[in-house]
Amino acid sequence: MADNQQLLARLDKLRGSRTVIVGIGNILKGDDAAGPLICQQLTDAVIDAEIIDAGTVPENYIGTIIKKAPENLLVIDAVDFQAQPGAVKLFRAEQLSSFALSTHTLSPHLFVDTIVQQTNAEVYFIGIQPAQTGLAQSMSPPVSKTCRRIAAQLIELFAEKNDVR
Fold first, then answer.
1. Burial of 127 (0-12, 13-18, 19+ CB in 10 A)
2. Confidence (pTM)
């Protein structure tokens, strides 16, 4: 829980800025679905950020993201950083090359570099430690719980001022 509160505090500076949130992952591979699941939960809410579920092909969205000219790019993906399942870590762009994300055709580092070169966006990469990423596995309870928490925190962070639900 402390990790999640620290994450929200570090991302608070994104409030009110032009932000694109990109979820990366394979919905057929258990915890690798974390990025797309969070995007789905954000899409169901009214928030002041662009949401893109890039699945396993984030490179297909580079042009779309560049056209949106974000001030900030927030990427969410399952990353094995050798922690307890469901743990969350906020990575800097330069740290991304240290982690192999085998379900994606283009490395997240190259994906981010291409966008930054064109937009000068600040990049924030939320990594969620997976427990299981085998084909046809369901999402593990700790990762599912983390996804719900992150989605709720991002909804709070990017809540539209005029949302009167």
1. buried
2. 0.89
